[in-house]
Amino acid sequence: MAQRRCIFCGGGRLTREHIFGEWFRRLVGIEEPRPGSVTHHVPGSAVEHDFEAIPSARTARVVCQECNNGWMSRLEQEASIILTPLLQGQSGTLSEADLETLALWAFKTAYVLDAASPGSGASFPAAHRYALREGGELPARSGVWMTTWPGTTTIWTSHWGLTLGADEGREADGPNTYGATFALGPMAFRVYATTMAAVDPRYFSDTIPGIVRIHPDPSPLAWQAKFWLTAEQLEEWAFAIPRLIEQNATNGDADAAFWRGEDSAPIRGPQ
Ligand SMILES: [Zn+2]
């Protein structure tokens, strides 16, 4: 069923808006329509991985006018000022404040992406979305990472969600562990959050060079303009956390329901 309430405040008066800021499209000069979507299934995997290359002009009707023209617009504007030189291939220093802004923006973008996904509606926890709007707060157990890949004018997105830790046979009513990875041109961001202590983001570290964690506890960053990840590595990185969780799922956790991408029906986890 289509979402008819603002995903950030529950208000009505939804407005059709761009999923990614128009400043990006103007910056890279994309005017023509881009391919709709690309789905890539990983053979032999217990979990199917869907990837999407979405047109930069794509719109969705998931937020209200007040949110869109207020805090979301301000955050988008702040992020665009920080991102523009990076997208133009400049090196430079990013302050803690810059990185905090990018982390909030990355989560805001991930929530919109999730909600705009065909068929499923908003699946990431409402409490997390509301806290972002109300207090500019990210979930207590969350992480944001940033890197680069040789994308040029593409927008690439992926997202996933897991319902972990069913309590006394009663399943949570939606994913409590989730993530999204998206790239605007060469800049790629990955967000991750969970309500479960056992899969706190501090347990996941990246072994590939060129990946910077910008939340929590950012420290000033000397940014080096360079393509760090290959396209293959980007895909691998996007799903590294759910793969690890999947691999470590013991029989006791086998009822974890795996959900992702454009599939509204849960896919069962490894047995
Ligand atoms: Zn709203």
Structure description:
There is one protein chain. This protein has 271 residues and is α+β, with helices and mostly antiparallel strands. It has one domain (21-42, 59-268). 28% of the residues lie in helices and 23% in strands. It contains 7 helices and 12 strands. It has helices at 22-28, 65-69, 71-87, 96-116, 126-135, 231-238, 240-248; strands at 14-18, 52-53, 59-64, 92-94, 142-148, 155-163, 177-184, 187-194, 212-215, 221-223, 257-260, 267-268. Strands 2, 5, 6, 7, 8, 9, 11 and 12 form an 8-stranded antiparallel beta sheet that branches. It has a two-stranded antiparallel ribbon with strand order 1-3. The chain has a two-stranded antiparallel sheet with strand order 4-10. A hairpin with a 2-residue loop joins strand 7 (177-184) and strand 8. Helix 3 (71-87) packs across helix 4. The longest helix is centred in the middle third of the chain and has 21 residues, at 96-116. The model is unreliable at 32-51 and 251-271 (pLDDT under 50). The structure holds zinc ion. Zinc ion is lined by residues 6, 8-9, 11, 63-64, 66-67. Residues 6, 8-9, 11, 63-64, 66-67 line the site of zinc ion (ZN).
Give short descriptive properties of this protein:
alpha+beta, single chain, eight-stranded antiparallel beta sheet, 271 residues, two-stranded antiparallel ribbon
Which ions, cofactors or small ligands are bound in this entry? Answer: zinc ion
- Cα-atom Rg, whole angstroms? 18 Å
Q: Report the total helices.
A: 7
Number of strands: 12
Give the terminus-to-terminus CA distance.
30 Å
Report the mean per-residue pLDDT as an integer: 79
Envelope shape: globular
Q: Helix and strand string, N-terminal first?
A: EHEEHHEHHEEEEEEHHEE
